[in-house]
């Protein structure tokens, strides 16, 4: 089975042994860009306590990663955030204010400011990252067509700041390394890299053979787990991906899906 803590540990060790340097997204935005680097990024959408397991593995190897937290109860867990910070990782705000406020820019920016101030009580947040909000018609990144990151003392947003023609982007969105075009709503980037992986073992093999890109951002969500309930997460994501896909072509299914998502996240 893929997407387990043991598999993640194996991936990290493989990258370390291949002499990749790990930098936070904040460091990247500040111009720290080694010849061969990984920006290990984690979006804490759900199962926040799993983030501590990943962060502990990284810390034990002298690695700093970047963790983006949402404001929803499944992500905003005080003891988890404090623990991540204590393990010397960067945290940022995984914002979704425009979708939560149904496209109202004034309410969204006030909400963004309030939530950013809140997360700064844990860490001097300098970077943020949009949440895809698949239930909503509003793309949270559009907030920056009207406002400026700099006005909030921010230096980076991955989908705005990074040149993905230079930095290879790899994401496990949809619980699949090759799921961005099939399952992702907004976690999609355009780039010149013609590389795809289906499993974590394929990534590990590419690293070991020297065929993995020299400069990459890897997004790993915090639903990776060795818990027996891991099977439930597999089933949940399998079902959710297919419902999400069908909802794009069926308004009634889209309504049911969007309602269920809002209830689950309490937004």
Tell me what the structure shows.
With 267 residues, the chain is of the alpha/beta class. The chain has one domain: TIM Barrel. 39% of the residues lie in helices and 12% in strands. The chain contains ten helices and seven strands. Strands 1, 2, 3, 4, 5, 6 and 7 form a seven-stranded parallel sheet that branches. Helix 4 links the parallel strand 3 and strand 4. Helix 1 (5-17) packs parallel to helix 3 (49-60), helix 1 runs parallel beside helix 8 (200-208) and helix 9 crosses helix 10 (251-265). The radius of gyration is 18 Å and the shape is globular.
Number of helices: 10
Number of strands: 7
The second-level CATH architecture is Alpha-Beta Barrel
CATH class: Alpha Beta
CATH superfamily: Glycoside hydrolase/deacetylase
In total, the number of domains comes to 1
Work out the radius of gyration.
Answer: 18 Å
Oligomer: single chain
Q: Which topology does CATH recognise?
A: TIM Barrel
Task: Bin the helical content.
Answer: 25-40%
The fraction of residues assigned to DSSP E strands is 5-15%
**Main beta sheet strand tally, sense and closure:** 7 strands, parallel
Mean pLDDT: 89
Low-confidence stretches: none
What series of H and E elements makes up the topology?
HEHEHEHEHHEHEHEHH
Question: Which descriptor suits the 3D outline?
Answer: globular
Structural class: alpha/beta
Keyphrases for this structure?
alpha/beta; 7-stranded parallel β-sheet; 10 helices; globular
In short:
Helix content is 39%, strand content 12%.
Can you lay out the helices and strands and say which pair or pack?
Elements: H1 5-17, E1 21-23, H2 25-29, E2 37-44, H3 49-60, E3 66-69, H4 78-86, E4 90-95, H5 97-100, H6 105-119, E5 128-130, H7 158-161, E6 168-171, H8 200-208, E7 215-219, H9 230-247, H10 251-265
Parallel strand pairs: 1-2, 2-3, 2-7, 3-4, 4-5, 6-7
Helix pairs in contact: 1-3, 1-8, 9-10
């Amino acid at each position: 089975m893929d997407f387990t803590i043991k598999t993640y540990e194996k991936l990290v060790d493989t990258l370390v042994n291949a002499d990749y340097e790990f930098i936070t997204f904040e460091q990247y935005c500040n111009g720290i860009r080694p010849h061969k680097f990984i920006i290990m990024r984690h979006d804490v959408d759900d199962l926040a306590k799993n983030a501590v397991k990943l962060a502990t593995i990284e810390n034990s190897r002298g690695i700093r990663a970047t963790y983006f937290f949402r404001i929803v109860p499944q992500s905003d867990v005080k003891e988890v955030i404090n623990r991540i910070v204590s393990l010397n990782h960067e945290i940022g705000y995984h914002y979704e204010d425009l979708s939560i406020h149904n496209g109202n820019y004034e309410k969204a920016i006030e909400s963004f400011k309030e939530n950013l101030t809140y997360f700064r009580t844990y860490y001097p947040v300098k970077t943020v990252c949009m949440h895809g909000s698949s239930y909503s018609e509003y793309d949270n990144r559009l907030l920056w067509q009207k406002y400026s990151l700099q006005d909030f003392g921010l230096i980076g947003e991955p989908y705005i700041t990074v040149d993905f023609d230079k930095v290879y982007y790899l994401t496990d969105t949809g619980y699949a390394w090759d799921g961005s075009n099939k399952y992702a709503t907004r976690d999609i980037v355009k780039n010149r890299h013609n590389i795809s992986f289906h499993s974590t073992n394929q990534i590990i093999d590419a690293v070991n053979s020297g065929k993995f890109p020299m400069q990459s951002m890897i997004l790993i969500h915090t639903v990776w787990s060795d818990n027996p309930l891991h099977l439930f997460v597999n089933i949940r994501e399998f079902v959710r991906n297919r419902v999400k896909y069908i909802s794009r072509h069926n308004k009634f299914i889209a309504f049911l899906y969007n309602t269920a998502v809002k209830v689950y996240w309490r937004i």
